[in-house]
Every structure is written in structure tokens, then in C-alpha cells.
Amino acid sequence: MYTNAAELWTEAKERQVPLSEIILENEMQLTECSKEEVMRHLEKMYEIMQISAAKALQKPLFTVGSLITGIAKTQYDYAQTPDTLCGGFLNLLMARALSCSETNAAMGRICAAPTAGSCGIIPAVLITVAENRKSSKEAVFNALLVSAGLGAVIMRNATVAGAEGGCQVECGAAAAMAAAAAVDLAGGTAEAALHAAAFALMNIMGLICDPVAGLVQVPCAQRNASQAVNALLSADFALAGQRSIIPLDEVIDAMFRTGKMLPMQLRETAMGGIAATQTGRKINDEIFSKKE
Q1: 3-state helix, strand, coil in the chain (%, to 5)
Q2: How far apart, in whole angstroms, are the C-alpha atoms of residue 180 and residue 262?
Q3: Which residue range(s) make up the domain with 215?
Q4: What one-character DSSP code corresponds to residue 267?
Q5: pLDDT of 159-169, one tens digit each?
Q6: Does the pLDDT at position 250 exceed 80?
């Protein structure tokens, strides 16, 4: 059994097997489930991801304060136009990430991978890349295993709680997990997948958690979209042959220590960042005065 990324990589290299196989074996051992049972669970999770990634694309969902109501549809409609700067692929990716966030804020069913606040990143990346590459179900589930394995490593050695380490550990962890999964879907090596995860975490290092009115909406939804893009550019870094000069385990440790350095005002308390702006405070007062 592996306890960190280095051990995971070493086992994959020595046995000449993909990361997904090692992670699957580990999961079977921990849960005492058969391969078929693990795969059925993955299929169920992926179905939830697919539904949440599509739910708000064509019909806005009600969210408290209407802070992000309709943003997924707005981005999805824009993705269909010929004049986008990032192209249809990335705009569809962003729309799907926003749809998951909007579904979450509307109390819909999502897959918290690894958290509810970062629920749109892995679904958007997996679905959009798999669709683009016409990947098989087996390939998607193997990529999902890779993302889960990386998430477990981060959880074991750091945290994914914004209240403990800022948004870098929520959206950052999800971006790292998604980057590794994207490399796997693209046929990249185990080494490349781990380097992609390192790049993704470095790209978001130090990001605070500052939800307006304490709601998981703004800037959470937009960060889901931006970190889905981060995941893909990190995957392309690794697929191009770039390698992180800082090992993934050290990047995870640095992220954890950085989170501990953040003052409590910047860790999900809505007392700092954009939540503490004049408009942010006004939105908070308007939402909660109506409830009283």
C-alpha cells in the first residue's frame, strides 16, 4: 500500500502497471470490495457527475440570493458562438464546471470530489476530455480511479478543507486530481500524471477561501471553472514533456504549510478577500436580513 505519491510512482514503475491498477487494488483491499463492486460505484459516481454537469446548462437553477443563478447557461450559450477567445472546447468545459456549482448551490445532487465547493472541476474535465477523445467507459473509470488515488494521497498528507487550508486545498486538490485524470485519459504515463498534479497545485498555491455571504457560490463557482482550465493546461504541460522540479509530495506539503499560515479571515470565514469588500458585505446583509 502506498502512503504518498512517490510510493505510488515507485510501485507503478517497478511493476510496469498503470496507476489505476495500483489504486484499484488498494481500494479493493481497504473496502474489501470486488473489482466489479468498485467499478459499479465508480459508474454511479460518474453518472451523478454527468447529471450535475448538464443540469444547469439550459435552464437556470434557483440559488440563495441568486448570486450564480443562470451562469452555467450563460457560459454554455457563449460556448456555441464562433467568437470566443478560448474556443468552444474550453468554454464548454467551464460551463460544465459552473453547472455543477450551480446545482450544488441549488441543493441538487452532486459528487463532492473531493468537496462540494470544488465539485465541478473533475466532472467538467473528465466529461469534456472523454467526449473529445471518444474515450471508452473503462478508460473514464480508470481515469476516475487515478483522480481518486491522488485525492487520497492529498487527504492523507494534507487536507481538502477550505476552512483549514483555503481554496488552494479544495479547488487546488480537485485541479490536481483532474489534471492527473486528464493525462491518463490522454494516454500519458504515470510519471506525467503525477507531474501534472504538481503543476496544478503550484498554479493555485496560496489561494484564499473567501465566499461572499458565506455561501458556496461566489467566487467558488468561477474558481471551479478556472481550475478546470488549470487542470487541462497542467496536463498539457506534463504531456508536452515538462516536469515539475519540485516533487509532488513536496508540493502537497508546501500547500499544507501555506494553508496553515493563512489567517482565519482568509479560510472560509467570509471575513476577508472579496467577501469583506463593500459590495460583499452589502450582499451578505441583504440576504440574511430577508431571512430574519
Answers
A1: 70, 0, 30
A2: 27
A3: 5-291
A4: B
A5: 999 999 999 99
A6: yes
